[in-house]
Each structure stands twice: as structure tokens, then as C-alpha cells.
Amino acid sequence: MADAKLSAAFPPAHASPHPMANPGYGKRSAPDQRPRTAHDFAHLPPREAAIAAYLDRLPDGADISVKTLAKQLPYGQCALGTALNRLQHAGHLRRGREKLAADSGSAHWITRSWWSRTARDDDWWAAFTRGDVPEDTPPPPTRSRAHILLAALGREVPSLSLSAADCAALAPLVTEWFARGATEEVVCHALTSGLPIPVHHPAALLRRRLTDKRPPELPPPRPPHRILECAKCGVPGRPEALPGGVCKGCRGEHGTARPTTLLPAPAIHARADAIRSAMSRKREESMRA
Questions:
Q1: Spatial distance between the Cα atoms of 112 and 140, rounded to a whole number of angstroms
Q2: What is the pLDDT of residue 141?
Q3: Alpha-carbon gap, residue 93 to 119, rounded angstroms
Q4: What are the boundaries of each domain within the chain?
Q5: CA–CA separation, 96 and 73 (whole Å)
Q6: Which site from 58, 169, 191, 259 is most exposed, i.e. has the minimal number of CB atoms within 10 Å?
Q7: How far, in whole angstroms, is CA 88 from its chain's centroid?
Q8: Pair 122, 162: CB distance under 8 Å
Q9: Which residues of 12-30 are buried (b: 16+ CB within 10 A; e: fewer)?
Q10: Dihedral (C-alpha) 176, 177, 180, 185: value to the nearest 10 degrees?
């Protein structure tokens, strides 16, 4: 039965594509996820595993609301709502809002549903909300982007042919250009334009140009403005107040009543006196009229 449900969760190839949400909304993939495997959701019950596998294969921007999922999967809205809450508790999903700035300078909040194939704990989601999740650091390829660019220079400009050792030595300088926002076209133009004739020492010339023409550092990116929301009641809160994506009130914990701000007694008496005085003046004015 579980296997049947798991298979049914994936629409056949001829089925219509999954609906997309309005631009800017829908599924958003969290960063730094491990490569997809056949056992990503083996720790989940069969129904939740089937739904998680389906969500994981949807593109960013897909509409993953309960109502839309119910039209695509063999589960009702109630079952899907429960399953999504369990996926949130397992660390695969968080729902909330993010503040986006427009080119005009204005800003607005939009609803987000962040998805992670790799299960994350509450501390990771809290760091993600602050925007300080470390970037993925896979082992660098044998030939980096910078190394490939340098090796290709000799095919475009024979006088700039480099040895493998030269490419390896100069690659960190090119990588720094990339980190500062330069594209391959910008780097190639800086290295190949206005060359002397002849070029006696191509590696020395390129090192000098990569050093002297290095672009300025980019300003640090602004941290995102994100707010997580309770999976059950939708109340916004700080990540540490929503362990497992659920607020204390929805978990049934005591002492969670929201504090009510009350005026001090003297202020209440003064306001009451002012109201009584105003009412008295109105009565006197009506009697004179």
C-alpha cells in the first residue's frame, strides 16, 4: 500500500505540468543542499516521503499551496496540510515572509515557502533567516574557471600562450577578479588589449595587468529581511520562538499568552476625568441652546 501511494505521488509523464505561483512567490530552494539521492527521505513515513520527493523535483516558483497540491497528488487538503507540517518539523520546509526592495527604492513583503532536500535543524534555519548560512564549499574542480580562461588565451592570442605552471600560478589572481564581479569578457579584454609587440614574457605581463588593473571590491551584500511563521496559526516570530516551525501556543505550552500593554492607574483616572468634563460641557451647551 505504501509503495502504491509512493508511485501515485508522481504524475505520469503525459500529465500537465505542475502550476506555477505568481512571479516571486512559490517554492524557493534553500542553499547548500547535498546532491539528490534515492534515499533522501527514507527517514520519513511513506506518505510524507512521497510528498517530499514530489516537492523536491518541482522547480523554484512552483505553487506548493495545499489547495494546488491537492489537485496534483492523491491526497486531500487535510492530509496534505498535516504532511507539510510534518515535513516542516523534520527540517525540510519553512514558511514565512521576505522583504524585497524594488529598483524604485520601495520595498514590500512577499510570502515564501523555503524547501531543503537536506533536513535542517532549528539553528540552521535561524542562521538562514539572518542571511549568514555559509556558502557551499565542495572540493574545487581539477581545472578551475580561472585556469581554463588563462589556458585559452594562447588560442586567441598566440603571444600569450602559457604553461600549465603559469596558469596555476596566475589563476588565484583571476579568481579574485571574478570575486569582485568581473566576467570572463572583462578579464580577457583587460589581458589582451593594447599588447606590446613583441611580448617577451607573457606570464610576467599578465601578472602585472591582473595586479594593476584589478577592479575594486564589491560592497558586502545586504542581509535579507526574513520572518518565519508558525506552520499552524501563521503567527510570525523569531526562529528561536518557532522550534520545528511551530509556536509555543500551538504546541500547547503554558505561559504563552501575549502580554497586554495597560496604562498606569493615574493615566486611566486622568483620561476618565477628561471624558467626564467633555460630556458635562456638551450637556451645558445643549441646555443653553
A1: 32
A2: 53
A3: 8
A4: 2-130, 145-212
A5: 24
A6: 259
A7: 16
A8: no
A9: eeeeeebebbeeebbbbeb
A10: -150
What is the Cα–Cα distance from 191 to 171, expressed in whole angstroms? 13
**Cα(75)–Cα(69) distance, integer angstroms:** 8
Query: Nine-digit cell at 139?
Result: 572540493
Report the chain's mean pLDDT, rounded to a whole number. Answer: 83
What would the grid cell of residue 11 be?
Answer: 504524475
- Please check whether residue 32 is in contact with residue 134, taking contact to mean a CB–CB distance below 8 angstroms: yes
Strand partners, 110: 98
H or E stretch including 176?
helix 164-179
Q: Identify which of 107, 54, 85, 126 has the alpha carbon closest to the alpha carbon of residue 234.
A: 85
Q: What is the pLDDT of residue 104?
A: 64
Count the residues in the chain.
Answer: 289
Confidence band for 282, pLDDT divided at 50, 70 and 90: confident
pLDDT in tens, 229-259: 888 888 888 888 888 888 888 888 755 444 4
